[in-house]
């Protein structure tokens, strides 16, 4: 059975601030600027906003944002946990609200000063967990941080090392992902790394962060905000710009999962949470991996891009390095990945900037446009309970 | 100071003359007794203990004359108020043992002068020189020696325990979070046990633990104590950003236990570059319950501790047996005048005790090299506790010596089986 979201809700508008390392603006200001930009794009007045969806980690409350943009009374608000794993999940929940009539106009937002303010790449406190996280998550980290495993890169390093061990992948295999993302960003004026591509040699010469991850395997830290406007499909006809149809939206976790320190399942060199999301996406959309014209894959750490390609069904286990080396994720390949440059190249807005890029691709307005893109896959953060979207062009 | 250093360097190798006496049984016996190492077989074999190398050419109580490549630099530092001296590092390498009847000759070469530096002893200079011992033309051993020459008048106020420089209190890292479901693990770590939750109904083991058994949903639980053996399933070497309480690079491993669960812990006793997937490791509980057990390469063997009560008699006897007549090692008033609590161990004795500890666990092995780094002084009235780790694959024993003031010595002893 198809989930209620399928083809019943659309992304009507996208908006963003500029992406920087020091916004000079408060996080609530960033959220409001992105929200108004998205509403203008959708041709919808702020007064019409009656729903909000964001991440549990977002520093701006739903009512604070509603106050700033002059929204009316809210009828729906929700937050999705697990860091960057929330991105597509927040859209999924907004879509369920809009499709069911719980709310008419749902604003999905994420805005932070993640470089000039609290930097997620830093070591977490020994007894700490991310803001707003439940005590059980602090307990999960409590098995790891006191052992010195205290940063997202260090948490991602253990599955990455095991992946190398299982499949003979190398640091250059990780590097080819970074090189492609930076090549894409180089021709995207929105990207922080616009006109700054890298070579594989530069990747290999970049300093260690947490072996086997080098600096250029890790996404940037960014200041900025992105907002999306989700409405019911009935409204699609009256929008000034083409919406993106939410063909499928799914959340998923693996059995026995932990957040970022999911080291206790049999196979840590794979992403069962993404496999669970993929299964649902393909079933709900009636589409398959081969039907996607582009993919926005969450690229916080390069090895997770390889593992996602496998979990999503683009190749067999351990074969993603060959897929990437063959150029298949680049422009003109059979699955262009992150034409905007991803979070390695454009900005790290917790996956939300990738959803906006998917909408641009479907509208035909992207900087690095995939010709005739009709279906785009989007994924959220991995190593955590995650989410995904299949978006389609409106016709 | 630079001109003094340049002049000293220009002297090249300076002959310090031959030992006043050939290697002889009386001095060896006296030294072995002072070190408490009388079970060692040196006398039976007609050999000198390697750590005695410097003893043979030490100046007598009158202080000389024994020319060296550093005496002009030392005198220059004295003239600038840097009258205090403490040894900080010494590495001796032994080409072969000295035999009874041989008369070694020492020659020194100035190496470097670094400073001025602010240290816990006061402002001063680190001075390094190399000594080579010869029997005839044959080189028999070498030593790199580093001292701090400091100005006792510039010694900073002692810091209160637990306070950081600048006077702001430095909070200890908070303990790992624990709940009623996890307390048994941390209690076990503090007691030197690696405990794994076991379902009291179906026997399923689980780590990390929680309130229920996911297999049968029972809340009844006890634990098993794991053997402490394991195999590295994956690992990282952390470089950046800084992690409080750690010095990068450091390795953290995800370890498969033969009991069937995995545990994460820091890696200890191994160069991070040597950690591998599949490496056999053994749990190490040196940090108690402050963190999960660390993991040490399985072929390393922790050695039993050796406690040595330090008395004025023992400190003085050892100083004399090593022919070190510096007053701070036998005269309590002179020691106090330099800011010490009492007479304290000289570095030649620390070397001798490190050698005794390392060789006691490897009888028959030949000592090829002893490297010591000194920390807090070991005073008469204190207890020196030596602990160590045998690393047979590397042919090395790591030795640590601790007193009530903290770490006195960190040493490595390279051994070769005969």
UniProtKB/TrEMBL annotation, chain A:
CDD domains: SCP-x_thiolase. Residues 265-385 form the Thiolase C-terminal domain. InterPro entries: Thiolase, Thiolase-like, Thiolase_C_2. PANTHER family: ACETYL-COA C-ACETYLTRANSFERASE, NON-SPECIFIC LIPID-TRANSFER PROTEIN-LIKE 2. This is Lipid-transfer protein. It comes from Nocardiopsis suaedae. The lineage of its organism: Bacteria, Bacillati, Actinomycetota, Actinomycetes, Streptosporangiales.
From TrEMBL, chain B:
Residues 224-285 form the ChsH2 C-terminal OB-fold domain. Residues 186-219 form the ChsH2 rubredoxin-like zinc ribbon domain. Residues 1-14 have a biased composition (Basic and acidic residues). InterPro entries: ChsH2_C, ChsH2_Znr, HotDog_dom_sf, NA-bd_OB-fold, Thioester_dehydratase-like. Residues 160-169 have a biased composition (Low complexity). Residues 1-21, 152-181 are annotated as: Disordered. This is OB-fold domain-containing protein.
């Amino acid at each position: 059975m198809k989930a209620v979201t399928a083809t019943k809700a659309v992304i009507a508008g996208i908006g963003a601030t500029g992406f920087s390392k020091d916004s000079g603006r408060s996080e609530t200001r960033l959220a409001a600027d992105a929200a108004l930009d998205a509403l203008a794009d959708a041709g919808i007045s702020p007064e019409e906003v009656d729903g909000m969806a964001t991440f549990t980690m977002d520093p701006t409350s739903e009512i604070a944002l509603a106050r700033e943009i002059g929204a009316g009374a809210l009828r729906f608000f929700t937050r999705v946990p697990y860091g960057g794993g929330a991105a597509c999940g927040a859209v999924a929940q907004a879509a369920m609200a809009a499709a069911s009539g719980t709310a008419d106009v749902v604003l999905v937002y994420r805005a932070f000063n993640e470089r000039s303010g609290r930097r997620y790449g830093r070591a977490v406190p020994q007894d700490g967990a991310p803001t707003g996280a439940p005590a059980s998550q602090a307990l999960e980290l409590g098995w790891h941080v006191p052992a010195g495993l205290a940063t997202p890169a260090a948490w991602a390093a253990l599955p990455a090392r095991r992946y190398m061990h299982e499949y003979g992948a190398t640091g250059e295999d990780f590097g080819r992902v970074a090189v492609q993302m930076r090549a894409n960003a180089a021709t995207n004026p929105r990207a922080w790394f616009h006109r700054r591509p890298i070579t594989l040699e530069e990747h290999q010469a970049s300093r260690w962060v947490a072996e086997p991850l080098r600096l250029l395997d890790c996404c940037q830290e960014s200041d900025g905000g992105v907002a999306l406007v989700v409405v019911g499909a009935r409204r699609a006809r009256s929008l000034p710009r083409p919406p993106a149809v939410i063909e499928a939206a799914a959340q998923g976790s693996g059995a026995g999962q932990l957040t970022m320190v999911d080291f206790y399942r049999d196979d840590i060199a794979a992403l069962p949470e993404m496999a669970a999301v993929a299964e649902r996406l393909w079933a709900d959309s009636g589409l398959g991996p081969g039907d996607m014209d582009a993919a926005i894959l969450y690229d916080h750490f390069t090895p997770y891009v390889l593992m996602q390609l496998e979990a999503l069904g683009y190749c067999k286990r351990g074969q993603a390095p060959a897929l990437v080396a063959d150029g298949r994720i680049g422009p003109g390949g059979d699955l262009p990945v992150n034409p905007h440059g991803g979070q390695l190249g454009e900005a790290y807005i917790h996956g939300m900037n990738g959803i906006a890029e998917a909408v641009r691709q479907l509208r035909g307005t992207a900087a690095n446009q995939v010709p005739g893109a009709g279906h785009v896959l989007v994924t959220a953060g991995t190593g955590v309970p995650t989410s995904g979207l299949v978006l389609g062009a409106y016709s | 100071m630079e001109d003094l250093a340049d002049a000293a360097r220009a002297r090249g190798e300076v002959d310090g003359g031959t030992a006043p006496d050939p290697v002889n049984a009386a001095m060896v016996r006296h030294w072995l007794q002072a070190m408490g190492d009388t079970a060692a077989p040196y006398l039976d074999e007609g050999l000198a203990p390697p750590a005695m190398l410097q003893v043979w050419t030490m100046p007598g109580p009158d202080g000389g004359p024994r020319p060296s490549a550093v005496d002009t630099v030392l005198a220059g530092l004295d003239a600038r108020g840097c009258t205090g001296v403490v040894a900080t590092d010494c590495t001796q390498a032994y080409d072969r043992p000295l035999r009874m009847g041989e008369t070694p000759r020492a020659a020194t070469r100035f190496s470097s002068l670094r400073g001025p530096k602010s240290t816990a002893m006061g402002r001063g200079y680190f001075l390094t020189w190399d000594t080579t011992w010869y029997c005839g033309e044959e080189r028999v051993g070498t030593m790199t020696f580093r001292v701090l020459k400091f100005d006792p008048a510039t010694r900073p106020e002692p810091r209160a325990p637990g306070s950081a420089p600048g006077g702001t209190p430095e909070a200890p890292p908070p303990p790992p979070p624990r709940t009623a479901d996890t307390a048994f693990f941390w209690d076990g770590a503090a007691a030197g046990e690696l405990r794994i939750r076991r379902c009291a109904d179906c026997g399923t083991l689980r780590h990390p633990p929680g309130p229920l058994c996911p297999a049968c949903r029972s809340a009844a639980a006890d634990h098993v104590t794991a053997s402490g053996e394991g195999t590295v399933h994956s690992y990282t070497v952390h470089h950046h950003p800084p992690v409080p309480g750690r010095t990068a690079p450091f390795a953290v491993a995800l370890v498969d236990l033969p009991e069937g669960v995995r545990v994460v812990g820091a890696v200890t006793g191994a160069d991070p570059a040597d950690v591998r997937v599949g490496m056999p490791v053994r749990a190490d509980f040196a940090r108690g319950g402050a963190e999960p057990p660390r993991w040490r390469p399985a072929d390393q063997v922790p050695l039993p501790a050796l406690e040595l009560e330090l008395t004025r008699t023992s400190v003085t006897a050892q100083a004399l047996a090593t022919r070190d007549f510096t007053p701070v090692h036998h005269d309590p008033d002179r020691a106090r005048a330099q800011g010490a609590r009492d007479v304290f161990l000289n570095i030649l004795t620390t070397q001798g005790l490190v050698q005794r500890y390392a060789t006691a666990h490897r009888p028959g092995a030949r000592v090829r090299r002893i490297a010591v780094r000194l920390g807090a002084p070991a005073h008469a009235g204190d207890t020196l506790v030596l602990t160590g780790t045998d690393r047979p694959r590397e042919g090395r024993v790591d030795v640590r010596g601790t007193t009530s003031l903290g770490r006195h010595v960190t040493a490595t002893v390279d051994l070769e089986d005969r």
